[in-house]
Write a structure and sequence with these properties.
With 173 residues, the protein is of the alpha+beta class. It has four helices and ten strands; from the N terminus they run ααββββββαβαβββ. A six-stranded antiparallel beta sheet has the order 4-3-8-5-6-7. A two-stranded antiparallel ribbon has the order 1-2. It has a two-stranded antiparallel ribbon with strand order 9-10.
C-alpha cells in the first residue's frame, strides 16, 4: 500500500479522543509486518519496536497521537437538534455548516446556528453552546434516542489532494 493510500485511510478513519479503537487497529495492522514487537498498553498507546541488525549507533523514537478533535453530545433541544461540547480545541467560528458523523452508527448531521428570526440577525458565533447539530430528529426524545448523551461525533471531511498538498480531517500537529 502506498504512503498516500495509508495517509488517506488513517485520515478518513474515526478516532475522536476517548474512542480511538478503530484508528488504533488500523495503525497496528499497518505496522505489524514491519516491526519486531507491537502491543497496546493499559491506556491505549500503541508501542512498537524495530530491532536493529548489527550494532545500532542511533536510536529513533517516532511519536504521534491517534486521536482527533470532535464533539460530544451533551443534550438535545425540544426541536430535535443536539447540544454538544468540544472534544479538543475547536474554533466555533468555523463550525456552522460543517457536516458531521455522529456515533458508531455513522449518523449524518449538520452543525447549525439558531434561525435568523430567533437570533435577531446576530449570526456572530462566539461560543459552541450557540450551535446545535441537526440529525433530522423531530423531538428531543427522538434525538437522544439516536444519539444519547456522551455520544462522540467527528467531522465528515474526506482526505483530498490539492496539487501536491493533501488535507483531511485528522491533519494537525
Amino acid at each position: 500500500m502506498s504512503l498516500t493510500t495509508h495517509l488517506k485511510t488513517l485520515s478518513n478513519a474515526i478516532g475522536v479522543s476517548g474512542d480511538e479503537g478503530a484508528i488504533r487497529q488500523l495503525v497496528m495492522a499497518a505496522i505489524r509486518d514491519h516491526v519486531d514487537d507491537v502491543r497496546v498498553d493499559t491506556i491505549g498507546n500503541v508501542l512498537a519496536i524495530k530491532r536493529a541488525k548489527g550494532k545500532p549507533k542511533l536510536r529513533v523514537m517516532l511519536d504521534a497521537h491517534l486521536d482527533e478533535v470532535g464533539v460530544m453530545i451533551v443534550g438535545a433541544n425540544e426541536d430535535g437538534t443536539l447540544k454538544f461540547r468540544a472534544v479538543g480545541g475547536l474554533d466555533p467560528r468555523i463550525l456552522p455548516g460543517k457536516i458531521i458523523t455522529v456515533g458508531h452508527d455513522n449518523l449524518s448531521g449538520v452543525i447549525g446556528l439558531p434561525p435568523v428570526h430567533v437570533s435577531k440577525g446576530d449570526t456572530d458565533v462566539r461560543k459552541i453552546d450557540q450551535l446545535s447539530i441537526d440529525i433530522g430528529a423531530s423531538s428531543k426524545d427522538d434525538a437522544l434516542g439516536a444519539a444519547p448523551i456522551g455520544t462522540l461525533a467527528t467531522f465528515s471531511t474526506q482526505y483530498r489532494t490539492l496539487g501536491a498538498t493533501a488535507y483531511g480531517k485528522a491533519f494537525d500537529d
